[in-house]
Fold beta-N-acetylhexosaminidase.
Amino acid sequence: MGGVSNRPWRASVAVAALTALLVSGCSGDPERPTPTPSPVGTSAGPSVPAAPPASDPASRAAALVATLSDEDLVGQVLMPYAYGDSATKVSAGSAAGNQALAGVDTPADMIAKYRLGGLILVGFSADDPTKGNQETTNVDNPKQVHELTTGLRTAAGRLAAGSAPLLIGTDQEYGVVTRVTDGVTVLPSALAAGAAGDPKLTEAAWRAAGTELAAMGINIDFAPVADVLATRSTVIGSRSYGADPKQAAAQVGGAVRGLQAVGVAATLKHFPGHGHSADDSHQDLPVLTQSAAALQSGAWPPFTAGIDAGAMAVMSGHLDARAIDPGTPATFSHKLLTDVLRGQLGFKGVVITDGMNMPPAKRWAPGEAAVRALNAGNDLILMTPNVGQAYDGLLAALRGGSLPRTRLVEAVTRVLTMKFRLAEQPAAQMSTLNTPAHRAAADALAAAAVTVLRGACGPAVRGPVTVTTSGGRDGTRATLTAALTAAGVQVKPSGGTIVHLVGYGDGAKDLSPDAAVTVAMDTPYVLADAKSPTLLATYSSSRASMTALAAVIAGKARPGGRSPVAVPGLPATTCRT
């Protein structure tokens, strides 16, 4: 495509491009009518168009796209992070962070200046393998998050694309990657769900969790993790549903159905399969050495299951799949995202990059990286390290021809279609957060996950117990102590039968030689080195998991889980059902 005028693009050009796009079925409906052209917004100050007629989301998206200027189109494919816990009032430090990131003071200013399609809420958690690209935090408690998202949507409502609600996402995976932890129902980890082995329990738990996300104003969750844990990957670990592709696939499908039933888009990640490398893409570019056939049978079934369940989004991973496109991170690979994900796996929704502030994506400047990612087949650019440079790079590439207009129109149409689909579901009220019914769903999943890998199915101990932990887990020890006491087990500061807890990042040095019971609260591999006569796994340190563990120790519940990963020298369970 040759050079393009700097004026906003003509509606007739937009309609021609959209007609070809819609006939190809990019949004999953090849029978949609061609949209009627509307006046084009201007670069200087786009007016908010009248809402498209009430029709299906894809038609509404196509009609809205036909009204948008170059600047509006580019903004809709950007989903950065911002500094601050409010849309309009931030600290001096957060304002400085936003100035460095985007040349503005507040998140609301960022949305207005760059006409953003979305914003990701970021934050820190205790045992977080993704902390390398979490440069700030936006989350404190549900009330604050709700006020923040309300302010962000108010700012976005003034945009030319404002009739389509702003995408507000976060990484609420549960387990070691959980952004909002206080005042909400916290599910056990994905690996715990894999141990429970009941997709219906997973679906019910994720429906409860999704309801609470929606109530806080979050409409896209960067979950579930669809990676099969084929290696001892510490960055994926208990974020995965397990090592068996078929069993993980069933769990992923359940999580997708639960989330999307309540109006929160699910995102399958990290395609083509981060669990097939032990390396960490937050530090370098992991290499997948498996053949294409091995990836198809061993890595992609959970992605296929999620797609079949209707997942609205897939996240592309910074992964080098040598058998398919050697040397090119999947985020930038047309072969993987367009030929495989869309062509072979049949995905028709929104493809989102992994964080573009991670090292494998930063080998290019933000503008060039954004253009490369979009041309490869991504529709949303997540967490660019410089919003202004990414925006300007995309706009220049559009007008210079290196970013085909049809590719950008296709991406924006998909994004807007997803937004309109999400808007069809009314959000729950804040009163739904952490309700007894939601906690019961999390409790049921956690209870079904508890696994005994050595020892009997009956009570794990007799007499008083003393709970010990590896370093820095005093909060979890206190939670279990309270749960044991409530279950009728006497807990003594010392001198009792030792129940020892180990978690994320722990190894053989963190085990206790005096423990009668050792409990793995993350991946269970460490249990291979434990000498305790009883070995249990909860795969999670959540309140629900500690309550379930207490019931097993007290002999009030049977540990019916099966380890979803192989632990050398140990069976998946010694408790036969």
Summary: The radius of gyration is 24 Å. The first strand starts at residue 78 and ends at 79. Residues 1-53 have pLDDT under 50 and may be disordered. The chain has 18 helices and 15 strands.
